[in-house]
Specification:
This protein is of the alpha/beta class. Helix content is 19%, strand content 30%.
């Protein structure tokens, strides 16, 4: 039986802040399927997201990766990123943070979810 992070909840997001299980985070971060948080998390090309940026998350074997692209969607995934992840059996979803948080909180109850969040733009 697969283990899911049923207890993890992103409670709030605002420009520059993400509150996870009562703890406020001010750095861009990655959430691994086991609930570990990696912060600060930086992408090689700032507001561009590539496979290389997700290497550690991919290694953790998520079923789904959710990318919070910032409060107004400033981070842009590489054009072929979704296809590359699909070939590995990983579903990829990217959305501005408020929507990405809603998706994360729903899917984390039923799947091995990993995520990345850019906390500004």
């Amino acid at each position: 039986m697969m283990k899911f992070m049923k207890s993890m909840t992103i409670e709030n997001c605002a420009f520059g802040t993400l509150v996870i299980d009562g703890i406020s985070h001010q750095d861009d971060l990655m959430i691994l399927p086991d609930g570990a948080i990696i912060a600060p998390w930086r992408r090689r090309k700032g507001h561009q997201l590539s496979m290389e940026d997700l290497k550690e998350l991919i290694h953790a074997s998520p079923e789904v990766i959710i990318m919070g692209t910032g409060m107004s969607g400033g981070v842009k995934p590489d054009r072929d990123l979704e296809t590359q992840l699909s070939r590995l059996g990983i579903r990829f979803m990217a959305a501005p943070n408020p929507k990405a948080v809603r998706i994360f909180n729903k899917l984390v109850q039923e799947k091995r979810v990993g995520a990345g969040f850019h906390l500004t733009c």
